[in-house]
Amino acid sequence: MSIRRLFDIAHHATEKFPQDDMFVTKYNGEWQKTSSKEYVNLGNRISRGLLKLGIKPGDKIALITTATRTEWAVMDLGISQIGAISVPVYPTISADDYVYIFNDAEVKYCFVSDRDLLQKVKTAKPEVPSLQGIFTFDSIEGAANWQEVLDLGSDEANQREVTDLSATINPEDLATIIYTSGTTGKPKGVMLTHLNIVSNVLASDKRIPRDKRLDYKDSRVLSFLPICHIFERMLFYLFQYNGFSIYFAESIEKMGDNIKEVKPHYMSVVPRLIEKVYDKIYDKGTSAGGLKSKIFLWALGVNKNKKNIGKPSGLLEVIADKLVFSKWREGLGGNIITLVSGSAALSERLNKMFQNAGIPILEGYGLTETSPVISVNSFEKMKIGTVGHVLDNLEVKIQEDGEITVKGPSVFKGYFKNEQLNSEVFTEDGFFRTGDIGHIDNEGFLKITDRKKEMFKTSGGKYIAPQVIENQAKASKFIEQIMVVGDGEKMPCAFVQPDFNFAKHWAERHKLDIGSTPQEISQSRELKDRIGKEIDYLNTKLGSWEQIKRFELTPEVWSIDDGLLTPTMKLKRKAIKEHFSDLYNSMYGHNSK
């Protein structure tokens, strides 16, 4: 069948790849399967129920879930095939942002996963005139449950209406509005059509490797990234399109257990997760003691010196793989074909290390506004340190100032209710301005160097690209987060959030008392001196004007909840600078006001 709209993917998968475990979610400690046939039937019931609630094409329905689950998939199908528009929302944003988004989109109904989110939305509801009702996925006393909508749709009398509405939906019709929680200002509603996302799914499909020995029914995906983000959502459709079983992880805290249970072949990741996984591996390897630690460190040396990425080729590489790296693969379930990395830049060092350990990572690049993938590496064409070749159906143009601009079917329709911004983000010849700086090398690989808006100029007139410096700095095991500052100042400085857990282990090994709380640890002179050596080493790789002259350790963990990171773990630079204004003034010798 022809795939032109999002809901076509579900029907395609049901016809071509029928299976018993299309989606699998754990409820009360038990994995519960939903077959492809049952998925489509439930989607139809939701469609019929929504129509009986008075939902019409173009109406907005918000979906908010703490962890992705089968109910979200069913709602997405039921909403899309009657021409309604889904508004997925991050669970971690503030109640004020809920009010803003719901009012901006004029949301009619909201579906939430659990009690905490229900309370958050109930707090916002009095300020949202358009919001007619809230339904929950969990069974909560006194709350309307999504089962009520399913029950409304149990009568198939209006299925013809669902079918007729589906037939009228065009690929160019709006499918979803995704509000990006940017590093500054109010969230922007990114309007994505069916064509935007479907074209990205089909173009990205060629880049996903398959194991020819596996039947589609044997291919498992573990999904844990927020599905309200377009990166995970596009992959959700892509894996459906291939008939792979999608298991929804319970939470980031239970990832280890879920990996052992599911033994996935595919997972999407963000660089921070890769860094965390490696830190855990390193701590375990070095704390084993004696011969085990020596073997571990020796194997890391073999990995680092390996010339050709891929399978072990020499005797030492075979031994290192057998003794150490085979255990890394077992820790990820033993079946991983590839990890797909996006959202931020991945350290070249870690990328190479995991590739050489037999855990391939396909790093890509894109934005919510591009549905999202612009480019991605593949097994056939891979170059570490780049984000791969541009997708076949897109055209990328590097502007004179180095900004990456893109044109093609997956580029969004525009920002909702924001014509002024829409006129600013497109060039005269119709290319979308990504805001990223980069270049395409002579082999066709795209390399990202920084965010245009995040570059700044010192008082000496020198431009600084902070992301480049920060990504290099985070290769240090002592540094969890770092933000380079210095706009209009005479020199670059930095806020550093130490990896407090690693710092504790380091202090124990060296019999140092640096305290136990983030506040105490950040005041440790010994730790600051040690991190100073990491900064000194980093500076040897930088131009004289880029070198970090001073830094301060921040006394707390930067998080989404405290407003210092976006839901996709990007730095909220303005908020961080304001939050640590005393440290900023200390570094630059300004008087605190």
Structural class: alpha/beta
Average pLDDT confidence is 92
CATH top-level class of the largest domain: Alpha Beta
The total of helices stands at 21
Q: Beta-sheet strand percentage?
A: 15-25%
Give me the CATH fold name of the largest domain. Answer: Rossmann fold
Strand order of the largest sheet: 2-1-10-9-11-12-13-14-15
The counted number of beta strands is 25
Distance between the termini: 66 Å
CATH architecture of the largest domain: 3-Layer(aba) Sandwich
Q: Approximately how much helix is present in the residues? A: 25-40%
How many domain modules? 3
Fourth-level CATH superfamily of the largest domain: ANL, N-terminal domain
The quaternary organization reads as single chain
For the structure shown, list the relevant keywords.
Rossmann fold; GMP Synthetase, Chain A, domain 3; 3 domains; nine-stranded mixed beta sheet; four-stranded parallel beta sheet; 21 helices; globular; AMP-binding; ATP-binding
Question: Would you kindly provide a written description of the structure presented here, covering whatever features stand out?
Answer:
The structure is a single chain. The chain has 593 residues and is an alpha/beta fold. The chain folds into three domains: 6-169 and 208-265, ANL, N-terminal domain (Rossmann fold); 269-334 and 336-452, 3-Layer(aba) Sandwich (Rossmann fold); 455-588, GMP Synthetase, Chain A, domain 3 (2-Layer Sandwich), CATH 3.30.300.30. 38% of the residues lie in helices and 20% in strands. The protein has a nine-stranded mixed sheet with strand order 2-1-10-9-11-12-13-14-15, with helices on both faces. It has a four-stranded parallel sheet with strand order 4-3-5-6, sandwiched between helices. Helix 1 (6-16) runs antiparallel to helix 2 and helix 2 (36-52) packs across helix 6 (146-152). The longest helix is centred in the N-terminal third of the chain and has 17 residues, at 36-52. The protein starts with 5 loop residues before the first helix and ends in a 5-residue tail after the last helix. Keywords: ATP-binding, Ligase, Nucleotide-binding. Residues 13-416 form the AMP-dependent synthetase/ligase domain. This is Long-chain fatty acid--CoA ligase.
